[in-house]
Task: inverse folding
């Protein structure tokens, strides 16, 4: 059988699962996809893996953003501000990942997964009440904190190849006190531009010379799986699923820590 | 770019750029917020879908 077809048969279903489950539990595709890629592709560099992941995250975030635009839930001012603020950080994160060897990347990512998992166990965002407070104009100090915070989150997201939503949404809700229905939509909007900036930087640095096919196979699966996850999330109890994901993230994090040299 | 310059940029640039972006954008763009979600059962169901990060 054609090797491209074999790879498509292997990666598209994986993308489908990542898209559906990531959307269902609200933890994003990147934080699930990167550990899977680390286990599936043991010889690839962190730069290649994060390039693939960020491109897939871009497609996922883009399709989600279009849906949120139709719902009119995006705070465009805050979204534009945080996107502009995050752009240099996304580029810096890509430059930084080229300096990080795989032996350091894996334990770093393992620690991040355990931290995210611990946070989600403690405070699953899917359990947020639906009756959000009426949005109020954000004070200038909070906007400034949001812009600076988003800039640093962009560095971390781009460095680790995750979309960053799993960090950005709690930041918007807890630190900036943005109503959850605005925070999730606005974060999606911001992630689209952060992931696009990081992906374009990877393209310029030649990281997609070999990985473009794999990225497209995964993206096809993700874009098919994400709507299914969104539809299922209306019927499934959010907090339980998020806690299950948190446990899975902690286990994978431990696995990466243990096998690190 | 050397490693030390890159690390310095990672530490300093986001803070400076974030502050600058906020200052400039706020000066040239008055804010408009989207409306709050409808306080109905359908609205609650839609909000449950929203936790996609």
Result:
């Amino acid at each position: 059988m054609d090797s491209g077809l074999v790879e498509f048969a292997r990666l598209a279903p994986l993308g489908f699962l990542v898209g559906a489950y990531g959307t269902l539990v609200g933890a994003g595709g990147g934080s699930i996809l990167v550990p899977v890629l680390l286990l599936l592709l043991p010889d690839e560099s962190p730069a290649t893996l994060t390039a693939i992941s960020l491109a897939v995250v871009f497609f996922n975030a883009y399709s989600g953003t279009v849906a949120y635009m139709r719902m009119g839930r995006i705070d465009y001012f805050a979204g534009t501000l945080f996107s502009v603020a995050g752009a240099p950080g996304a580029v810096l994160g890509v430059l930084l990942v080229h300096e990080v060897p795989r032996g350091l990347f894996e334990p770093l990512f393992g620690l991040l997964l355990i931290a995210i998992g611990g946070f989600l166990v403690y405070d699953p965002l899917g359990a947020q009440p639906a009756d959000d407070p009426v949005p109020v104009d954000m004070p200038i100090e909070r906007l400034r904190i949001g812009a600076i915070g988003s800039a640093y989150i962009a560095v971390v997201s781009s460095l680790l190849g995750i979309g960053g939503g799993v960090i950005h949404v709690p930041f918007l809700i807890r630190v900036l006190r943005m109503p959850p229905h605005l925070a999730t939509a606005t974060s999606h909007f911001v992630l689209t531009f952060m992931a696009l900036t990081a992906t374009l930087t990877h393209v310029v640095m030649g990281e997609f010379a070999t990985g473009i096919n794999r990225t497209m196979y995964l993206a096809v699966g993700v874009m098919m799986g994400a709507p299914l996850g969104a539809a299922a999330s209306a019927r499934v109890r959010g907090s339980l699923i998020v806690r299950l994901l948190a446990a899975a993230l902690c286990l994978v994090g431990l696995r990466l820590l243990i096998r690190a040299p | 770019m050397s490693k030390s310059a890159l690390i310095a940029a990672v530490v300093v640039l986001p803070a400076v750029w974030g502050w600058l972006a906020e200052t400039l954008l706020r000066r040239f763009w008055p804010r408009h917020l989207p409306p709050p979600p409808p306080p109905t059962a359908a609205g609650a169901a839609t909000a449950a879908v929203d936790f996609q990060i």
User: Anything to note?
Assistant: The mean pLDDT of chain A is 82. The longest helix of chain A spans residues 46-71. Chain A touches chain B through 64 residues (CB under 8 Å). The radius of gyration of chain A is 17 Å.
